Amino acid sequence: AVVSTQSTGALKLKEPGHAAITRQLESQISAFKEKSAKDPEKAGTVTYEIHYRGDHAKFAEASRVAAIEKRITELESKLGKDLKLLTMVTGDCPDKSMLSVVAALQTKLSLIEPNDYAHIETRLQAVLHKMDLLKSKAKYLIW
């Protein structure tokens, strides 16, 4: 956790959910100030203790890796694993990353006005209908 002090001298932890730790640190600091005021010989000396548990760190790392693997699996299931399709999607992106693909899609979608969605959908339905008609007539054409 990153600790900062404001001009009031109050501690603020920048990670959410650490209010109890902040109160504990503040109470320890006030106890230290009282103790150092009583014993001027040890005034100005601070002893820090850090307790590190490696199994918690390993578990947290494994949890992060599992979350990333889950996200990759979700992306693959939505996009598919077809290289031809992926090449088509990343075709206009310079670095061929998913982040650049999403950014390019967002840029293209931002160009479309929300009022035009109904018009675009109607036009696409008309094109789809014409394609179906051509497909049914293509059966009768002799090449």
Short overview:
This protein has about 140 residues and is mainly alpha-helical. Helix content is about 60%, strand content about 5%.
Description:
Helices cover 62% and strands 4% of the residues. Residues 1-8 have low confidence and may be disordered. Strands 1-2 form a two-stranded antiparallel ribbon. Strand 1 (3-5) and strand 2 (11-13) form a beta hairpin. The radius of gyration is 31 Å and the shape is elongated. With 143 residues, the chain is mainly alpha-helical. 0% of the residues are buried. The longest helix has 26 residues, at 54-79. The protein has helices spanning 19-38, 54-79, 83-89, 98-111, 117-138, and strands at residues 3-5, 11-13.
